[in-house]
């Protein structure tokens, strides 16, 4: 027998392969950007050998829900992501995508598009193809799969977004969807809860999204209402999926508002039932507080609100709204007006709901992190290690293998990311070497920026992007489509 030679050989790891099956011990070999062999490779040689004894090797994590559209260009090393083991991000969520922007850039940028970039400088891609081509020419450290945002399309198409789109406007938006899908977008996202899209009737969404089916693309939604009318919103989402004949993704599934606490029993039941007739997916972040732009109507419904960034009064990033009001004086309405444009964290979920949704078998992990924010919600840096550490190892919400599946194999399958999310011969070498006994969040509400604990090495397409506690500077990320 001849000795096999590989580019990289990871020796003696415990392998958790992303399918949910039990861990096993194996060596894993890489040639180029793919896994070339898994098994006992004691006889093999390699250009580079990684001694993985005592560590666990998993597929790279796929962040099912991000707002990293601008981060990939402005900070392509993607430190908040690769430091926690993320190797692929799904971007363009909640109706908000950086492209297309064919005409004059709104000034000031229309909220919530400003949560990507409030200066407007990065909204510089006339077409979705321009944007993806830039990412192909100047890759980020992570792979990406991108959605085109319905809110972005409304803003570029309609003079007045406070009404339903006309048939001409719908046709124009549909052409943008066609262009984006042809360029490589994997679907459309909506943010029907946000002012620029709240006036869009269900039929508008269906008509704009018509091209999805023939491209095998998905519909992802920040639903119209995650509070009192969450059940109606789920029905609307299912209806859109059935009308279009496509898979739907319920983004950051949650139930908000005190009087709705506990209703995840009902929502998960509705989701489970719908899954029997159509393709329904969902993702969740592991926190009982949400985060988005600062808005008076949201602040009013919350006992506690923390400011994450502010153009009006930047000194208050990280402060609670109550503290700002005490220092500045005035009503909530006045103080919010002075802070704007701004972002905030809203403490408005029930911890048992969060756990129930996270533990649901079909729930994928998505951070919903907001890299634009000065003092971001800790989900940006800590989502994945928190699921593995706090919720998995600590509270025993799921086995380690299940938790890994929720952030790898399940997500790859739902988004149609071929040969990702699993460790097996022939799959792409997106890999995380970690210590499953110590992996834990390195960021929290008080200290929202910091790398995860216990993440040893992260590889994207066979190349190390995170090693020895730092980014390597490699940028092997690909634009993924299906
Ligand atoms: Zn959202
Ligand atoms: Cu989001």
Can you walk through the features of this model?
- With 482 residues, the chain is α/β, with parallel strands linked by helices.
- The chain has 16 helices and 20 strands.
- It has helices at residues 71-74, 79-82, 128-137, 150-157, 167-183, 195-198, 202-208, 230-244, 264-275, 296-299, 321-328, 332-339, 351-359, 379-394, 400-406, 409-415; strands spanning 5-15, 24-31, 34-39, 45-51, 56-59, 61-63, 86-91, 143-149, 187-191, 218-222, 248-250, 280-284, 289-293, 304-310, 342-347, 363-365, 431-434, 455-460, 463-467, 470-471.
- Helix 7 (202-208) packs parallel to helix 8 and helix 8 packs parallel to helix 9 (264-275).
Question: What attributes characterize this protein structure?
Answer:
alpha/beta, Urease, subunit C, domain 1, TIM Barrel, globular, nine-stranded mixed beta sheet, Dna Ligase, domain 1, binds copper (II) ion, 482 residues, binds zinc ion, eight-stranded parallel beta sheet
Q: Termini, distance in Å?
A: 39 Å
CATH superfamily of the largest domain: Metal-dependent hydrolases
Mean pLDDT: 97
Task: Determine the number of helices (DSSP H or I, runs of at least 4 residues).
Answer: 16
Query: What ligand species are in this complex?
Result: zinc ion, copper (II) ion
Number of domains: 3
Decide which structural class fits the backbone: alpha/beta
Total number of beta strands: 20
Per CATH, the class of the largest domain reads: Alpha Beta
CATH fold-type name of the largest domain: TIM Barrel
β-strand amount? 15-25%
Indicate the low-confidence ranges by residue numbers: none
């Amino acid at each position: 027998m001849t000795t096999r030679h590989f580019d990289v050989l990871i020796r003696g790891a415990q392998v958790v392969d992303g399918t949910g099956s039990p861990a096993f011990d194996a060596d894993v070999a890489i040639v180029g950007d793919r896994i070339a062999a898994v098994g006992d490779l004691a006889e093999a040689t390699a250009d580079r050998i990684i001694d993985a004894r005592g560590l666990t090797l998993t597929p790279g994590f796929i962040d099912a829900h991000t707002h990293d559209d601008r981060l990939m260009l402005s900070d392509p090393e993607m430190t908040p992501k690769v430091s926690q083991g993320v190797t692929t991000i799904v971007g363009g969520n909640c109706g908000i995508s950086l492209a297309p922007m064919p005409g004059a850039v709104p000034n000031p940028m229309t909220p919530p598009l400003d949560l990507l970039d409030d200066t407007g400088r990065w909204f510089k891609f006339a077409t979705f193809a321009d944007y993806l081509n830039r990412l192909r020419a100047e890759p980020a450290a992570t792979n990406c799969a991108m959605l085109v945002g319905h809110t972005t399309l409304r803003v570029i198409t309609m003079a007045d977004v406070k009404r339903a789109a006309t048939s001409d406007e719908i046709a124009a938006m549909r052409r943008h969807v066609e262009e984006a899908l042809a360029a490589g977008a994997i679907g459309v996202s909506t943010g029907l809860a946000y002012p620029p899209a709240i006036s869009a009737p269900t039929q508008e969404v269906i008509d704009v999204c018509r091209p999805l089916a023939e491209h095998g693309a998905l519909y992802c939604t920040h639903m119209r209402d995650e509070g009192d009318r969450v059940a109606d919103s789920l029905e609307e989402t299912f209806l859109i999926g059935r009308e279009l004949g496509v898979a739907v993704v319920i983004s950051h599934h949650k139930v908000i508002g005190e009087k709705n606490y506990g209703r995840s029993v009902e929502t998960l039941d509705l989701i489970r039932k719908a899954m029997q007739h159509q393709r329904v997916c969902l993702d969740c972040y592991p926190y009982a507080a949400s985060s988005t732009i600062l808005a008076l109507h949201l602040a009013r419904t919350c006992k506690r609100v923390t400011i994450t960034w502010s153009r009006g009064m930047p000194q208050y990033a990280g402060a609670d709204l109550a503290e700002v009001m005490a220092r500045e004086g005035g009503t909530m309405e006045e103080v919010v007006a002075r802070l704007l444009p701004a972002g905030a964290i809203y403490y408005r979920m029930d911890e048992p709901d969060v756990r129930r949704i996270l533990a649901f078998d079909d729930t994928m992990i998505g951070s919903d992190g907001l890299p634009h924010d000065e003092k971001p919600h800790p989900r940006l840096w800590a989502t994945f290690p928190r699921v593995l550490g706090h919720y998995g190892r600590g509270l025993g919400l799921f086995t380690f293998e299940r938790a890994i599946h929720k952030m790898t194999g399940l997500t790859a399958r739902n988004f149609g990311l071929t040969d990702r999310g699993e460790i097996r011969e022939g799959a792409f070498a997106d890999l995380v070497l970690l210590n499953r006994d110590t992996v834990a969040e390195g960021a929290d509400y008080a200290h929202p920026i910091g790398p995860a604990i216990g993440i040893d090495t992260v590889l994207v397409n066979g190349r190390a992007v995170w090693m020895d506690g730092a980014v390597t500077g490699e940028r092997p990320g690909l634009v993924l489509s299906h």
